[in-house]
Amino acid sequence: MFSYRCEKGVMSLVNVRNCIRFYQTAEELNASTLMNYCAEIIASHWDDLRKEDFSSMGAQLLYKMIKSKTEYPLHKAIKVEREDVVFLYLIEMDSQLPGKLNEVDHNGDLALDLALSRRLESIATTLVSHKADVDMVDKNGWSLLHKGIQRGDLFASTFLIKNGALVNAATLGAQETPLHLVALYSSKKHSTDVMSEMAQIAEALLQAGANPNMQDSKGRTPLHLSITARNEYVFNQLLQCKQLDLELKDHEGSTALWLAVQYITVSSDASVNPFEDLPVVNGTSFDENSFAARLIQRGSNTDAPDTMTGTE
Fold first, then answer.
1. Domain boundaries in the chain?
2. Statement: 58-133 belongs to CATH 1.10.260
3. CA R_g for the chain
4. What pLDDT does residue 303 have?
5. Domains 58-133 and 137-245 share a fold
6. Is pLDDT above 80 for 274?
7. C-alpha 109: how far from its chain's center?
8. Residue 221 has what pLDDT?
9. Is the Cα dihedral 222, 224, 226, 229 positive or negative?
10. Which long-range contacts (CB under 8 A, 24 or more apart) does 6-14 make?
11. To which CATH superfamily is domain 137-245 assigned?
12. Contact, 214 vs 168, CB < 8 A?
């Protein structure tokens, strides 16, 4: 048994980085004064403590500590990447599952999203197997899949798609589906690696049954958006989809081909430029690899009327 004097002496050595270790020792030795002192430091620096600080602590003691310090112990257990503590939570809360798994913490985060954003596949799989809702949405109608795509998270997006997330869910207001969000990525703003990953997500979405013809609040399909964003990666994935409707118009009356034409610089070689009298602005030259040429090769109607004049 530690004497009070010894405890007071040791207390002078305690700081933020070692308070967890001293708390463990005090708990083992039943040194209550030292344990309470360490607990105060832990409490005042709770959000500053890193996963490494908790690595040596046993699951039972850590779970007990987490429960005493936060209203959302599951979220904290995931943040410190302790699957053993997650299991203790699931055992204790068994009668309240799956409801407790779908609670948001003070930051508005879901436990499953915390696990996915940290690439903790085993914890994420455990949560889903205990019926965490892969389609939970926030007040703006953004699902975990929408959020994963928005942050450019290939791991989270593919995990959710594989686990049955709704691939055609639309956000409130803008009415954007996951395919719309991947199409919005621009090569001007993102690296080739990120663009390639968006194409992989697009492919996974389409294979899982995503509808490439859904229109957002402005009537734009993912194909429309891939053209205006100059997203050749997702554009290529969409063109391979048999169900793709090339003639859908947005609310301004523009087809995908009409939008693509706006980006063409007329070629001096008449043989490669089928658009004799269409007004064009500076963009990419018209060649067999341009968005417009690819659409025509895929079967776009070149006789679609001009949306402004109604002429063909």
1. 1-49, 58-133, 137-245, 250-312
2. no
3. 28
4. 75
5. yes
6. no
7. 12
8. 98
9. negative
10. 6/31, 7/31, 7/33, 7/34, 7/37, 8/33, 10/34, 11/37, 14/38, 14/41
11. Ankyrin repeat-containing domain (1.25.40.20)
12. yes
